[in-house]
């Protein structure tokens, strides 16, 4: 029996079990129960109970009984009953050894290793994983052996990443096509290794593959852990909102299982993310709930993580005594677990707390130890954090405590020395945004030393960092949305195929002699499921129900708020029925009973029923079928006839099949509507982010004229004071007065020039901002609007070391929408800066317009960059398509631009590209088309 199986395999066993009776069920019952052990633990145990009863009279039943004992032990482990799980696993292992069943021994050693993890016995864990690999080798099972090795590798990384890479780095062929169960654990190992090396973007990618493979193979606990790890990596990259989405996904997976360790872990990681968002009271509540749940796991690594998060929360709340206590307890657990990451965090946290408890000498020693540990293990993230604590210790010590200066110090004081070291290391982390507060700390220290020039430079860097962080949050949400879309699509496809397979099997069982009917039903199912609009699904269902069953009543009821059924589509005699709300706890309503029992209800003759229920007077028989999708019930569908016994076995089969297709189609329609809403929300966020970047650019452009004016004004003030002293002193010569007047005239000219420039820029910004936020139609000069848009982007263009050439003649007037037009130009500039000049400086962007011909103007935007790959050229206008995912690209800019140009502006946009650059050509009418009020234009 395989260690893990895919959802498709489980679906096949589910189908195969349906027609079987008695002992014939055993060959299917055993693998189905085994592979449901994490997918649905309670049902797995129920199937195991049934199998145990059937095995009482079966010959050679010992291997099956031992396998069922491992199943029960795993469920006990998941439920936190560790002693029971250990005892059952020991008993099963003894049975497998006596039978010489090496694969069973491998699976039992694997389970005993994870029981050891939750008990905090990591030496026993390593030994059991090694025994699992050896038993798999004895069984000749390479996949089981590789899974055990991958798990050993992931734990070795936490102990010593250098030794782990040396021992396990060449064990796995990353280019090979491996089974999904093994892929789960290889990517988990790679994710932990990337995380320990502070490659948080890479780690998130590995954990995402772990998450998908774990769900596909029924490893739900591993999927919960992977979702939490993805959230943690987003948090490390300062995208706390995306982190919270993944933490919520982990919690949504964990809560229905009732597994205390998984629920506690999800709560724990959610608490830390909430803390990073500054919601300390909410974080405290979540952390306390997690600690209560995890108290039986006090010896585990997870409880050590809880101590770390508790210490961090105490620091955030200025409870330094509480923080010191938490980190001291963490230090003890770190030594017991022999895990380097906890040793770093414990020492750094103790140092941070001691610093504020006025014990700087002790804090200094512990912080230095934390930095040395992080450096020795190539953990740049903890290295940076340790250096910042060292800077904090020296900054707070001041003149009251004489602390030794660091060796090789070249800065003015130890605080600046450590902050600059942290800044240098932070710049090496791929995908990491240097926090603005690090630059703020440097600016504050330079200002304290009265080095205002460098303080100003650091303050500007801090501003850029804060702006970049806000931009990356929007990008992170786009990535999270895309990941969510991909994952849900994959799961929906799997569920779709499963439902189709089940429907096909039921039809084949009862209608083997009617292949023509089967073919027709299949074609009908394709027509039903192709629609993504609920109203269209209802119409197609009604058409085929009327054609195949000819009912007097056809109605679809959907669950509303989990408490009642409401009609979504209901016809009696071809006419709409009056809407009727039916409570789910209604005792006599057959439709409510159908939903509650999740099973078909067939009323053959309503006249013979003791209670008629809410049935139309003309209905003599009725058939109710629940709309079921996986474990969810969407509602109920009913057909009713004026004749009793109207629906035979064939009619009921047809109706069940149509309902199965209908459930899939309605769920797809609901998911599609949610996706559309999510895309709209995402585009709104992107528009706000673009306006924020616009404001930042204008603010930067204003700095120069206003700063120059301020400098000249202060110089003039100084000259005036000197003139006053001369006048009140030895006397004022004519030549001095003449020179002062000349200087004052030149100064006033320069001040006025600077202020006029600032005023013009503000006026441009006001017009662009109004256009961008209102999408108001007006007549505008193309040259003027183009220059206003480019002026707001000059900050980013110059910062990228590129230049832009604008060749737009005067006199071209458009009656159109300057705001959306500006967004198109801004998106094209951003796209060029992000993609065109990869690794190059001194690039050239050009924006040209040709005089209007035949009521249209041609605008060309080109660059001299590297061009677009031919295989990508046909996809660049697709939503969410980007080659820079996670590096600033959301995949929405060109899609939005295409929709604006072709719909609202009434024009066309095309692209050509080659090795020497890319050119976008816009053909726009001078007068934009008037929108049809009955059909609003959908830009996005």
Element layout with pairings:
Elements: H1 7-17, H2 26-35, H3 41-55, H4 62-78, H5 82-99, H6 102-119, H7 122-139, H8 142-159, H9 161-168, H10 180-196, H11 200-216, H12 220-236, H13 240-254, H14 260-276, H15 280-294, H16 301-316, H17 320-337, H18 340-356, H19 360-376, H20 380-397, H21 414-426, H22 436-448, H23 452-510, H24 515-529, H25 534-549, E1 553-560, E2 564-572, E3 575-576, E4 582-583, H26 590-597, E5 601-603, E6 621-629, E7 632-641, H27 649-728, H28 734-774, E8 778-781, H29 782-799, E9 803-807, E10 813-816, H30 818-836, E11 844-853, E12 856-863, H31 893-904, E13 908-914, E14 917-925
Parallel strand pairs: 9-11
Antiparallel strand pairs: 1-2, 1-7, 2-3, 2-4, 5-6, 6-7, 8-10, 11-12, 12-14, 13-14
Helix pairs in contact: 1-2, 1-23, 2-3, 3-4, 4-5, 4-6, 5-6, 6-7, 7-8, 8-9, 8-10, 10-11, 11-12, 12-13, 12-14, 13-14, 13-23, 14-15, 14-16, 15-16, 16-17, 16-18, 17-18, 18-19, 18-20, 19-20, 20-21, 21-22, 22-23, 23-27, 24-25, 24-27, 25-27, 27-28, 27-29, 28-29, 28-30, 29-30, 30-31
Task: Please tell me about this protein's structure.
There is one protein chain. By secondary structure, this protein is α+β, with helices and mostly antiparallel strands. The protein is 65% helix and 10% strand. The strands form three sheets. Strands 1, 2, 3, 4, 5, 6 and 7 form a seven-stranded antiparallel β-sheet that branches. The two termini are 51 Å apart. Mean pLDDT is 84; it is low at 476-488, 508-514, 767-774 and 936-940.
């Amino acid at each position: 029996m395989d260690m893990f199986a895919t959802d498709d395999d489980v679906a096949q066993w589910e189908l195969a079990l349906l027609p079987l009776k008695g002992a014939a069920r055993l060959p299917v019952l055993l693998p189905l129960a085994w592979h449901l052990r994490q997918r649905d633990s309670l049902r797995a145990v129920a199937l195991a109970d049934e199998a145990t009863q059937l095995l009482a009279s079966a010959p050679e039943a010992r291997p099956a009984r031992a396998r069922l004992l491992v199943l029960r032990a795993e469920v006990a482990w998941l439920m936190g009953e560790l002693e029971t799980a250990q005892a059952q696993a020991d008993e099963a292992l003894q049975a497998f050894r006596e039978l010489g069943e090496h694969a069973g021994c491998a699976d039992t050693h694997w389970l005993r290793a994870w029981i050891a993890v939750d008990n905090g016995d990591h030496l026993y864990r390593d030994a059991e994983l090694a025994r699992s690999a050896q038993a798999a080798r004895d069984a000749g099972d390479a996949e089981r052996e590789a899974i055990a090795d991958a798990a050993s590798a992931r734990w070795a990384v936490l102990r010593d990443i250098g030794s782990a890479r040396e021992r396990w780095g060449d064990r796995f062929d990353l280019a090979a096509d491996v089974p999904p169960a093994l892929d789960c654990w290889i990517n988990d190992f790679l994710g932990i290794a990337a995380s320990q090396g502070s490659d948080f973007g890479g780690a998130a990618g590995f954990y995402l593959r772990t998450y998908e493979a774990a769900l596909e193979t029924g490893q739900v606990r591993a999927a919960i852990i992977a979702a939490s790890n993805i959230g943690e990596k987003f948090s490390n990259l300062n995208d706390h909102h995306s982190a919270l989405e993944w933490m919520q996904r982990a919690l949504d997976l964990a809560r229905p299982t009732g597994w205390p360790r998984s629920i506690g872990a999800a709560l724990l990681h959610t608490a830390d993310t909430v803390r990073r968002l500054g919601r300390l009271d909410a974080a405290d509540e979540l952390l306390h709930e997690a600690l209560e749940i995890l108290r039986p796991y006090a010896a585990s690594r997870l409880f050590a993580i809880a101590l770390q998060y508790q210490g961090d929360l105490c620091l955030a709340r200025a409870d330094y005594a509480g923080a010191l206590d938490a980190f001291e307890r963490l230090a003890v657990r770190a030594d017991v677990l022999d895990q380097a990451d906890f040793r770093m965090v414990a020492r750094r946290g103790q140092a941070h707390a001691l610093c504020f408890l006025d014990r700087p000498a002790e804090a200094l020693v512990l912080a230095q130890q934390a930095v040395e540990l992080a450096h020795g293990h190539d953990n740049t993230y903890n290295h940076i954090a340790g250096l910042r604590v060292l800077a904090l210790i020296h900054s707070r010590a001041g003149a009251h405590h004489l602390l030794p200066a660091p060796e090789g110090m070249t800065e003015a004081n130890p605080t600046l020395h450590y902050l600059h070291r942290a800044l240098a290391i932070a710049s090496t982390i791929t995908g990491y945004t240097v926090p603005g507060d690090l630059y703020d700390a440097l600016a504050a220290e330079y200002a304290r030393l009265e080095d205002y020039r460098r303080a100003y430079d650091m303050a500007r860097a801090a501003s850029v960092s804060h702006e970049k962080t806000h931009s990356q949050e929007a990008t992170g949400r786009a990535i999270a949305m895309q990941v969510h879309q991909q994952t849900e699509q994959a799961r929906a496809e799997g569920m779709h195929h499963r439902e189709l397979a089940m429907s096909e099997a039921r039809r084949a069982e009862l209608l083997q002699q009617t292949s023509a009917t089967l073919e027709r039903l299949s074609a009908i199912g394709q027509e039903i499921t192709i629609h993504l609009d609920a109203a269209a699904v209802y119409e197609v269902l009604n058409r085929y129900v009327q054609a195949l069953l000819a009912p007097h009543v056809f109605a679809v009821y959907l669950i509303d708020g989990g408490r009642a059924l409401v009609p979504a589509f209901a016809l009696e005699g071809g006419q709409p029925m009056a809407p009727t709300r039916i409570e789910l706890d209604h005792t006599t309503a057959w439709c409510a009973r159908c939903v509650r029992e999740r099973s078909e209800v067939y009323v053959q003759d309503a006249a013979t029923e003791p209670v008629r229920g809410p049935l139309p007077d003309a209905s003599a028989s009725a058939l109710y079928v629940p709309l079921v999708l996986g474990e969810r019930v969407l509602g109920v569908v009913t057909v009713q006839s004026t004749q009793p016994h109207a629906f035979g076995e064939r009619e009921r089969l047809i109706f069940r099949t149509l309902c199965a297709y209908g459930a899939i189609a309605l769920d797809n329609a609901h998911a599609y509507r949610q996706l559309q809403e999510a895309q709209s929300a995402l585009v709104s966020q992107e528009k706000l982010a673009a306006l924020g970047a616009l404001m930042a650019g204008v603010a930067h452009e204003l700095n120069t004229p206003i700063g120059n004016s301020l400098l000249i004004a202060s110089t003039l003030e100084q000259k005036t004071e000197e003139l006053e002293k001369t006048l009140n002193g030895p006397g004022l010569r004519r030549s001095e007065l003449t020179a002062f007047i000349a200087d004052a005239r030149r100064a006033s000219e320069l001040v006025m020039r600077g202020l006029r420039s600032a005023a013009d820029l503000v006026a441009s910004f006001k017009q662009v901002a109004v256009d961008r936020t209102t999408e108001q139609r007006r007549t505008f000069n193309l040259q003027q609007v183009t220059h206003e848009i480019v002026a707001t982007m000059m900050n980013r263009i110059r910062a990228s070391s590129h230049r832009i050439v604008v060749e737009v003649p005067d006199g071209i007037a458009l009656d159109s929408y300057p705001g959306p037009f500006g967004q198109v130009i801004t998106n094209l500039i951003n796209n060029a800066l992000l993609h065109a000049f990869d690794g190059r400086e001194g690039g050239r962007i050009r924006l040209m317009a040709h005089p209007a011909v035949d009521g249209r103007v041609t605008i060309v935007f080109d660059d001299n960059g590297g061009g677009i790959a031919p295989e990508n050229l046909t996809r660049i206008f697709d939503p969410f398509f980007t080659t820079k995912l996670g590096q600033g690209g959301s995949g929405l800019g060109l899609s939005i631009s295409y929709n604006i140009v072709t719909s609202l502006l009434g024009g066309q946009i095309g692209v050509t590209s080659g090795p020497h650059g890319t050119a976008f050509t816009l053909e726009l009418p001078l007068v934009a088309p008037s929108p049809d009020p009955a059909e609003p234009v959908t830009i996005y």
